[in-house]
Structure formats: C-alpha cells, structure tokens
Amino acid sequence: MPDNQRLRPDVLVIGAGLAGLACATDLIGAGLSVRVLESSDAVGGRMRTDRYQGFLLDRGFQVFNTSYPQVKRRLDLRALRPHPFTPGALVHTDQGRLRFTDPTRRPLAGADLLPGRLASGRDLLALGLLTARDTLGPVGALKRREDRTTLTALADAGISSELTETFFRPFLSGVFLEDELETSSRFFHLVWRSMVRGTLCLPAAGIGAVPAQLAERLPTGTVRPETPVRTLTDTGALTDDGTPWEADTVVVATGPRAAAGLLPGLDIPDTRTVTTYYHAASVPPLREPTLLVHAGRRFLNTCVISEVVPGYAPAGRALVATSVLGPDRPGREAVLRADLAEVYYTPTSDWESLAAYTIEDALPAMPAPWPLSRPARIAPGRYVCGDHRATGSVQGALASGARAAREILAARAARPSAAL
Are 67 and 201 in contact (CB under 8 A)? Predict the structure, then answer.
C-alpha cells in the first residue's frame, strides 16, 4: 500500500522550512497526525548549509538571535554550539574605521562612542533614550506604537542625519535588505530590542543546523523530502508525480511565490533579493568575529565568518562572506573584490572565489504600516504560514507557523466534525 494511503493525516503541511516545521511540531504535540511534504532534498527552505572543499557555505548570510522568544522555546542552544558575533559593528568611512559597540557589554571597546567620533553628545543621549525605551519596557508597547518608516522614527528619536548616514543606514540595510529605511518602525524597534538583549550567533555546523534540529524532533517519516506539490485539491494535494495526498486540513508553508501558486488570489508582499559572495583567503583579513559595513553602502556587510566559527573553513584558510543587494551579475564580483581590498586594508587579488548565492524572496518588503502577524486561515481547511505572513526573521517564521497551528487547533475544537 502506498505510504500516502497507509495513514491519512489530520493535517498536510507543504514546505519544511522553519514555519512548516514549527507548525508540524505544535500540531503533533497536540495529538494530531501530520505529514510534511518538502520539494527539495532536505529541510530548511532558505536556511541551508552546503559543504564545499572543506568550507561550510550558508545559502546566503544568515544569523539567529538568542533573544528571540521562539528560539528560546524551541531550540536546544547548547546542542547547536552557537558562536557569537561581536556585539556591534565596524564602519568603514572616508576617515577610517570606526567601531559601534554596546558599551554595557564591552566598555573597553567603546572609545569610538565618545562624543566627536562616531556620534555627537546629543546623538549619544538620543541613542541611549531610544535603546532604553526599546529594551526596558514591555514588548507589547513596541507593537502598539504608531507605525512609520524607520527613517522617520530615527529622526523623531533625535538621531541626527549624520549618525543615520554613518551608521544606521549602512547597518540596517543589511538587516532590512533595503537602503531607504522605509521599513516599518515597529519592526525596527523589535529588531533593536532583540540585538541589545540577545546575541547574534551561528551554529557550529552552519545555519542549516537550526531547521535540522527541529526536524529531528518530529516522528520518523513525518517529513517527505523530494516531494514537490503541483496543486491543491478538494481533498488535499497532488504531487508532481501525480500522487494524491488526502487530508482535511492543508497548510501551505512555502515561500510567497510558491504559496500564491498553490493558493490563487493570496495577497503576498513584494520581496527583497540579496546575493552573498564567499571568498577564501590564506590569512584572515580581520582577526575578530565582527560585522563590517561601508558608510558609502558599496555592499550590505562583510565578515570573516571563520573568525566567528572556525569550523566554517579548513585549517590554514579563512572564509569571507559579503552580501550585496540584488542579484549577481557579470563583473559584480570583481568590483566587490576591489571594495573588499579597501575596507580590509589588504590585497584581495589572490582570494579564491568559492560561490555566489542569489536568494530571491530573502525577506518580505515591510513598509509602514506593516502588520506584525497575519491570520493563517485562508479558507475552510486551508492555511498559510511563513515569514512573509509576519516579520522577515527567524522569529517571524517560527511565530507564523505557531499561529497556524493555534488556528487549526481552535477550529477543530469549535467544529470537530466539520471542514477545518
């Protein structure tokens, strides 16, 4: 008997990214039977890690934050063996390199935060007040604030245009994947809170270890890799090979474009595209685990990722990851290599180009006003989740999956025998 007929699941989840895995975990924990159909050869969606010539190459530069509530709830951080980045960032300017750091964590490294260097005394006061409001109050208060653009929110907080252009615009461009700072101010305040309260990390085995850990906790056979779904049907879904899968409830947990293909009429946001270039060097061009941004925004950010996690590179090599807005194109790597020589103060002509990953739909565009979460139920028995339904982050994806599970369970409790 075919596996899809051996057990008709209560819920069919399409997509084994973070949202789909979180949804499946919560439904199984509530006693429901679930099958997860994944089109690729492994779980993770965009959160994957490749091995190449002894290097670990994440599919696009990605990090996770230890302060995210969903991360605390779902992940065994000790088992992931997370390696932290330095709190803050280095900023390359025409006057040299400046360090923006959290003085409460690294007071001896905060010289560039003295008035007259990276920021004025007035800016430092405004920054301190903004940070205090974002980190010390209840998170619900941030979510209820009037939503504006991040650029407007910074100006209203008293941050000067000089500090915005020197630090916030280049730094946040790598967070939002847009450099106009048009992203929702509510999302900015939540991000700023998480950065101050938590730590940006990478797992020892690569970012793909995060979804892998979630999948390992599911019952054996729950996830079916290499099972792409062609269309939804009245009774479930039909895979590309013509196999029907039946279930009363179907959750579409794919990226936005695939979700719109399976759910015609679904409202999806615009998305951001990013390309990450990986280079191998014989020696680390920067001997610390710190993000480096360019005040002139020639790229989003760069870091010697093997300084964060030594296991990302084989012995005697260093791995540099650099991200830029938009897709790869002819000649772009050569221009970037020259920019990297400038910011790292070292020749880069002998660096080996390992790979370039262009990630479409890397983040949803989140202009103000942006809903921090959207209902998962689209129609009777049809649900959708993913970071495009919430905030473009690990927290957003996991929370969206959790919301879909809650709505399904609530519908079953209300109408246990009806279409859900």
Answer: no
DSSP lists the bridge partners of residue 277 as: 322, 356
Task: Check: pTM over 0.85? Answer yes or no.
Answer: yes
Cβ atoms within 10 A of the Cβ of 83, count? 18
pLDDT above 60: residue 72: yes
Assess whether pLDDT exceeds 50 at residue 195: yes
Alpha carbon distance 49, 44 (integer Å): 9
Of all helices (H) and strands (E), which one includes residue 154? helix 150-156
Which residue carries 């040299």 as its tokens?
96
**Residue 259: partners with Cβ closer than 8 Å, 6 or more residues away:** 252, 266, 268, 384, 386, 388
Name residues whose C-beta falls within 8 Å of residue 205's C-beta, 6 or more positions apart in sequence.
Answer: 49, 56, 80, 81, 311
* Single-letter amino acid, residue 354: L
* CA atoms of 258 and 242, how far apart (whole Å): 18
**Tokens coding 60:** 């696009």
Helices (H), 7-94: 18-29, 69-74, 77-80
Q: Looking at residue 102, what is its pLDDT? A: 73
Which of 272, 273, 270 is CA-nearest to residue 327?
A: 273
Taking the C-alpha atoms of residue 213 and residue 198, their distance in angstroms, rounded to an integer, is 21
Helices 18-29 and 394-414: angle between axes, nearest 10 degrees: 40
Is the N-terminal amide bond of 289 cis, ω within 30° of 0?
Answer: no
Name the DSSP letter for residue 49: E
Tokens of 123: 């800016």
Q: Letter for the amino acid at 388?
A: H
| Max Cα distance, the chain (Å) | 74
Residue for token pair 């879909």: 404
pLDDT at 120: 85
Residue 1 confidence (pLDDT) above 50: no
